Amino acid sequence: MMMTRDDETANEGAASRAVHSRLRALIRRDELGVIGLAFTVGAAAGLFVAAITAAANLLHLNFFGAPHLSGLFRLETPLIALVPVLGGVLIGLSGIYVRKRRPLRPVDPIEANALRGGRMSLKDSLVITAQTITSNGFGASVGLEAAFTQLGSGFGSWLGGLFHLRRADMRTLVACGSAGAIGGAFGAPLTGAFYAFELILGAYTPFGLAPVGAAAIGGVLVCRLLGTGVEFVRPAEAASLISNLDLALLMLLGVLCAGFGIAIMRAVSLVESVFARSGVPRALQPCCGGLIVGGLALLTPQVLASGHRALFNLFSAGGPPISTIAAILLLKALASSVSIGSGFRGGLFFASLFLGGMMGKVFAAAVVSAAWLPAADVFVFTIVGMAAMGVAIVGGPLTMSFLALETTGDFPLSLVMLAVSAVVSVIVRRAFGYSFATWRLHLRGESIRSAQDVGWIRALTVAHLMRKDAGPVLATLPISEFVREHPFETAQWIALSDAAGRYAGLVFIPDALIANADPQASQNSLETLAVNRDVVLVPSMNIKDAAQIFEEAESECLVVVSDGGDRRVVGLLTESHLLRRYTEELDRAHRELSGEVWTVSP
């Protein structure tokens, strides 16, 4: 029998689906499969870093005449200061188009892992990446690291969805995308790995060590192969000798960086609120921001873009006077706040390093000028200030400590950096409570403070937990009649409703049986036994909020009423069942975090 072309195509499709199904099952069943995917994601993230960096540098070269804007000492012509305005126009127009075509707000890696089980849109990630390249390429004072991590993590989420991975594996692949991106961008695999643990996963996990480490190495290898990397710190010539007085001064520098970092995050919110109240259309706000940034660039081009070359020059011998560095510090902080607050896309990762480096150098100059203090090692103060400001704004004390170690090779200095980072982290957490990324989420109404997985709490709602067979009885029904009509009632609680069907209270059935034994009390209506008339749950409430209401009400059972406001009884929920399910979900989350899922069959 001859096979037709359609039959051959159908057989090839079936064979392809069978291979894909076997491969998917293998990866879900074996931890090595996830590690292989993680390396692939990290390598792809390294490729994205190279492509994004090349695109931004090409824009810099075409519009400003140099690939590294912050290395310029002046603009060739004042007209170049209008380039950020043009970038603002493009960002505004793209925002209009994106809001019409994709009305849902894009999700970043932290939000995806905290609330959505690692689910991200690759298309949204591509849009954010394009907008970030445009913002940075046209001179806005933002970094490319946000695009690196967004696209790397978005690809990881897409690949995980392709293989239908578990929730824990999806979150890990999202972290792997960021690990490969940051590791490749800085040529620092430990920095990339701990960036993923501290900021994208929200915790160090034994299970995540192998895949995240593989991804970070993959990103670094690809970037080195392509010749992409950020050189911004010269290696230490010798191990730093840090006295007790130096340590105390460095701690003070950390405190100053913490305060300055909080001020910058507040400034971004202030700029946003000023634009919101100004009446300027949303699409024109980036244009106005670009006008301000362009004006600042006329004073010093070092406020433009990320600040890579300016930070490298900061570590070089000589350089501008301290008064000039202090002025650039303030102008760069203003430019970054205006850029992000007006609507440009990008982050503050590298800007925070540049700002911290300048803060450290200014502080070292102040120490040197004090006759009663010993001479300060400017390099040490600059690198510590750089990392301390990074901790204050970005977060991740271990991330910044390993960045100092991998870029300088100075182990004693990295230990000091770890101590300073811990101090900065505590100060920012107690005084402010957020990193820049989680602060932005807070302003949008989210309550998360890290990337730890709390999405299951929001997904586990009262609607999933309640008994739906809890039909109410009339509150005016006599107790004796209720007992006669429900002689073998197995439930312990019954909901009451009035004549209009609205919730009217909750009755403990043993109380009704006791009252029925009294001939006089048995003639009373059920509403005389009703409790919790005003304390109710709604189906959309999550398990955490419901547990809080149970604790405040000090009740064993509560009624669930409809969300519409008509107080129609739709179910019952007991505290014991809620706590049991809460414990089960916590245990499941713990097993996923520790990797115990691989000890059982899928």
Could you describe the 3D structure shown?
It is a single chain. This protein has 602 residues and is mainly alpha-helical. It has 24 helices and six strands. α2 (31-64) packs antiparallel against α6. The chain has a three-stranded mixed β-sheet with strand order 1-2-3. The protein has a three-stranded mixed β-sheet with strand order 4-5-6. 64% of the residues lie in helices and 4% in strands. The chain has three domains: 15-226, Clc chloride channel; 244-450, Clc chloride channel; 457-589, CBS-domain (Roll). The chain is elongated.
Task: Write out key terms for the chains shown.
single chain, 602 residues, mainly alpha, Clc chloride channel, CBS-domain, 3 domains, three-stranded mixed beta sheet, 24 helices, 6 strands, 64% helix, 4% strand, disordered C terminus
Estimate what percentage of residues fall within beta strands: under 5%
Sheet/helix structural class: mainly alpha
The CATH architecture designation of the largest domain is Orthogonal Bundle
- Share of helix, binned: 55-70%
Q: What's the domain count?
A: 3
Q: What order do the strands of the largest sheet run in, or round the barrel if closed?
A: 1-2-3
The CATH homologous superfamily of the largest domain is termed Clc chloride channel
Mean pLDDT: 85
- Determine the N-to-C terminus distance: 42 Å
Beta-strand segment tally = 6
